[in-house]
Amino acid sequence: MAPRPLTPQEIEAALAELPGWEFAEDRLRRTYSFAGHFPAAAMVLHVAQIQEETNHHADLLLGYDSVGVSVNTHSVGGKVTELDVGLARRIEGIAPSHGARP
Q1: Which keywords describe this protein according to UniProt (predicted)?
Q2: What backbone phi and psi angles, to 5 degrees, belong to 40?
Q3: What does the alpha-carbon distance between residue 62 and residue 74 come to, in Å, rounded to a whole number?
Q4: Which of 5, 8, 67, 70 has the most crowded CB, counting CB atoms within 10 A?
């Protein structure tokens, strides 16, 4: 079954469980901060691995000590679906192991 766009209420409920994430311009977004470049780069590599496993990909922006994540589902016209929420949850789950700051 193809994913369906989430309602504003469903997105709001998902964000309540994803601290630091926001909904803007039809995307879920979050920026993580790190103690330096290497942990940020390691986080990007780990996220890339998860994306390949799930066949669902976010836009990632690697800075010196930060990683920006922005995701929506292209197959439903660039709207947020449960695929995006699931990816955000997975990313949120690994962030502490890379030293992401709250």
Answers
A1: Lyase
A2: -65, -45
A3: 22
A4: 67
pLDDT tens column, 62-77:
999 999 999 999 999 9
Residue 47 is encoded by which pair of tokens?
């996220």
The answer to whether 71 touches 84, Cβ cutoff 8 Å, is yes
Q: How distant, in Å, are the alpha carbons of 16, 24, 72, 87, 101 from that of 57?
A: 22, 17, 9, 8, 23
Give yes or no for a contact between 57 and 46, defined as CB atoms under 8 angstroms apart: no
The owner of tokens 């997975």 is: 90
Residue showing tokens 């695929």: 83
Give 22's Cβ-side CA count (13 Å radius): 6
